[in-house]
Design goal:
single chain, alpha+beta, Porin, 16-stranded antiparallel barrel, globular
């Protein structure tokens, strides 16, 4: 009887091993949960039969023979389990798509223009001509994706960007939540994006997608043309290109509109400061923990985005139309304690100087229409055009104030104190205050002026009919932003963040493929700045300047 049991169990083990070996030998085969369950059940059945055989040892005439048979079965099950482990590991890896990108870039910069008095349009130097000779940068990216189930998908990108053997470069404190992974810094690998897509259909023929985490909001169209890659962001770069944490909900409208892949998307992005504030290692706040309010820290910033997109029909089937609306209902005031010249206004021990911080500088809205067409009419020509309109509603401004009961001076703008009391005996003590900044509002210096702005971005890419040279590409882009333009483009891979510039930019490039996984790109960018950045970001009045910058870059780009 023991021999029959041994033969029966051996046959089952061989069948199972052949089945598992077939799965393991096929690179394309993925094991389902049902497959795992069947094989595991068979293993349990074999173990049960071994236990039964062990109980029958006392009835066998040759106990040693039965023991040898049991040991042989255990060896086979161990071997089978090892194969099973390899198959499980491979099947799990089949769910994960991992690829890497390594970019080495060499940059040359040429600058011409004047320096200006702070917070004014007054030139304080002769024209300067400065150059940066070949600044090399390495950028490493890891892209990880996992199709966890039919309606559950994970995507992420890790990023490290660094100038060659450079010291740590600090990132501007107001922007570090928008571009921390994209700006050259240390050797740390930062999380640029990590998000889940959950697909569901609460109403028949009306599928939804819920996206949450660190959103895919960098490298939006038309970055895919110059980078020679697929679309990487949900939103056009002219509208929004920043690293963002938030929630997004998309609804697909294929069954309701006569267009290809029509979709409507809504996004909520939120920026929250922790309460312990640092800049360049200097502690700015003594508050600890999320439950301790730091009155001088920048308040919470909420950004809401709505977007409709679709591909046009028939002959323009490769033409993407995007209409994007960005709404910031409350623009918080800036935290300028990192500026050593202004720290006195935040010192609680100095009662004569203080910062008058409004609850909000105002509201901001931006409407963008973007069209991108690839291989237009089978001509190997790709082109795009985007236009954006921005409006702000002023509600207040950050004001740096001075008052002195000793000299009978009521609260007054610090920068105006000397001019107001220059005939007084104590006037000399007020002279240093003339360097205090004017009120800092939403694209204004008074807290009351509403603004409007426009920007245009257009260009093309053409694939040259040169198969011996692997079909190289040439491209040209142009963009212009008006005085009060605010691009929300801090996370762009462009070193100058050209879509944030208030002025004119020309960008020419040549792409030379080397292999399927390796290309080079030579580009030339010319920038004519009409206005500066104000105090920073969307804070302060943009002042007229005459800066002109040219930028040459050479890129070695490997993707594998």
């Amino acid at each position: 009887m023991a021999n029959r049991l041994f033969t029966y169990i051996s046959t089952l083990v061989i069948i199972c091993c052949l089945y598992v070996g077939y799965l393991y030998a096929s690179d394309m085969q993925k094991m389902t949960h049902e497959d795992y369950k069947i094989i595991k059940d068979k293993i349990e059945e074999l173990k049960h039969r071994i236990q039964k055989l062990e109980k029958q040892q006392q009835d066998s005439s040759d106990i040693h023979q039965v023991i040898n048979q049991i040991n042989q079965l255990n060896d086979e099950i161990e071997e089978y389990s090892e194969i099973m482990s390899q198959v499980e590991r491979k099947s799990l890896l089949d769910l994960i798509d991992v690829n890497a990108e390594l970019r080495t870039q060499f940059n040359w910069y040429d600058f011409k223009g004047h320096d200006y008095e702070p917070y004014s349009g007054i030139k304080n130097s002769p024209e300067r001509h400065e150059r940066v000779r070949m600044m090399p940068t390495n950028q490493l990216r890891f892209n990880l994706r996992a199709q966890l189930s039919d309606n559950f998908k994970f995507s992420s990108r890790l990023n490290m960007t660094r100038h060659w053997s450079d010291d740590d470069i600090p990132i501007y404190p107001e922007l570090n939540f928008l571009n921390a992974a994209r700006e050259p810094s240390n050797l740390e690998v930062k999380v640029e994006r990590a998000y889940i897509d959950y697909f569901f259909e609460p109403i028949k023929n009306l599928p939804f997608a819920l996206t949450f985490g660190r959103l895919p909001s960098t490298d939006g169209p038309p970055t895919d043309l110059k980078e020679k890659t697929t679309r990487k962001s949900t939103y056009p770069g002219l509208a929004y290109d920043c690293e963002s944490d938030g929630l997004a909900l998309s609804v697909l409208l294929d069954h309701y509109l006569p267009l290809q892949k029509p979709a409507f998307r809504t996004v909520w992005v939120r920026r929250v400061d922790d309460n312990t504030q640092y800049f360049l290692g200097e502690k700015l706040s003594s508050k600890y923990g999320v439950y301790r309010k730091d009155e001088s820290a920048m308040d919470t910033l909420n950004i809401f985005i709505a977007q409709f997109e679709a591909y046009l029909p028939e002959a323009l089937s490769h033409t993407l139309l995007m209409i994007n609306y960005v709404w910031i209902p409350k623009v918080p005031s800036s935290d300028l304690r990192y500026n050593p010249e202004l720290q006195g206004f935040y010192d609680d021990n100095n009662t004569s100087l203080y910062a008058d911080v409004p609850d909000s500088e105002g509201k901001l809205s931006k409407l963008t229409c973007f069209i991108e067409s690839k291989n237009c009419f089978q001509t190997q020509l790709d082109w795009f055009i985007g236009i954006s309109f921005l409006r702000t509603k002023a509600e207040g401004a950050l004001r740096f104030m001075f008052e002195s009961p000793q000299w009978d001076i009521p609260p007054i703008l610090a920068r105006n104190a000397y001019e107001t009391y220059k005939d007084k005996p104590f006037a000399d003590a007020l002279k240093p205050l003339t360097n205090a900044p004017p009120p800092i509002g939403l694209l204004n210096s008074d807290g009351t002026s509403d603004r409007s702005a426009q920007a245009l971005h257009m260009g093309f890419r053409y694939t040259l009919p040169l198969p011996k040279f692997k079909h190289p590409m040439i491209g040209c882009e142009y963009n212009h932003g008006s005085q009060y333009w605010f691009g929300i483009n801090a996370g762009s891979s462009d070193e100058l963040h050209k879509l944030d510039i208030r002025g004119t930019v020309w960008d020419l490039y040549y792409i030379q493929p080397i292999t399927r996984h390796f290309l080079t790109r030579l580009s030339y960018k010319w920038v004519d700045y009409d206005y500066d950045d104000g105090m920073s970001f969307y804070h302060g009045e943009p002042m007229a300047i005459d800066h002109r910058v040219s930028h040459i870059s050479f890129v070695l780009d490997a993707r594998f």
